Amino acid sequence: xENLLFRLFELLAESGAVATGVTDAGPYPVGARYExxxxxxxxxxxxxxxxxxxxxxxxxxxxxxxxxxxxxxxxYRLADWGTAGTPAVAGFAWGVDYHRRIGALLTQxxxxxxxxxxxxxxxxxxxxPERYIAQRAGVGFPGRSGNLIVPGVGPAVVLGEIVTTLxxxxxxxxxxxxxxxxxxxxxACPVEALSGDGFLDxxxxxxxxxxxxxxxxPDDVARALDGRLFGCExxxxxxxxxxxxxxxxxxxxxxxxxxxxxxxxxxxxxxxTTIARLGRSRLLAGYAYSLIARADPRVEKILxxxxxxxxxxxxxxxxxxxxxxxxxx
Length: 329
What we know:
Blueprint: H1 2-14, E1 19-24, H2 31-39, H3 48-52, E2 68-75, H4 98-113, E3 119-122, H5 130-136, E4 141-142, E5 148-149, E6 157-164, H6 184-188, H7 206-211, H8 219-224, H9 234-237, H10 255-258, H11 266-270, H12 280-290, H13 299-306, H14 312-328
Antiparallel strand pairs: 1-2, 2-6, 3-6, 4-5
């Protein structure tokens, strides 16, 4: 078993993982934490997490007869426009959709280590409490922002898991208070979405509104987008544990293309990325909100054109953006 584990970690490292660990398949005592989050009104009890909460308490709900879960963290480079302003697309969304990319890497590793039918690969694609599992597997510790922080790397990571029916030796999971009195992430959040005790208010989080826009953002949140089209990385950027990853992918929407977005082919621009999940309608509605605080002279013309869209979602968002822009100025 030790040889199998050594080979597994070796292959994961070769695939780009910067931290790996193993924990058991549960039960996971995560229910109370989620219930507190719901009771504070920060999350939607009737949404996906609320409906699937009981499933998160055991990896056996993802793979029958599961005995172990391997957690792996893969780094990404934060987006940076320099003096051009806030990047439109967060770094985790650059390149091929990380769900598919990391999923393919983990599947390739699992096929070389585990018997067929004895594993399932998960990359935010099943009801697993991935950050809790990563913490329990010794991959990292929970930050004040709620992000998982990998020692020596920071919070700029995406997580993936291999759930298996094999019983593997679990990794040590030391208790770490890596944040101490630091509140850099809490203070940096543009919309005060971080409570400071690990909870994130999805009613205000810019990343939540741009990556999973179930409803339009409140007025002050819409104004705070300031060019952010997909994702927000402020809490990650200011973390003292953050160490920049080397460049790997190119920005799908650099400054010159950001202001030309309405005329670009959605499929050609975002077809392979995580952004493709939004669809053109939701993306352009969010684009209208992202333009509210931009000072570029092209903004007025862009919003006027979007206001004439035959898509009611885009038309409504653009009209509201025009109104908020006038109030903002």
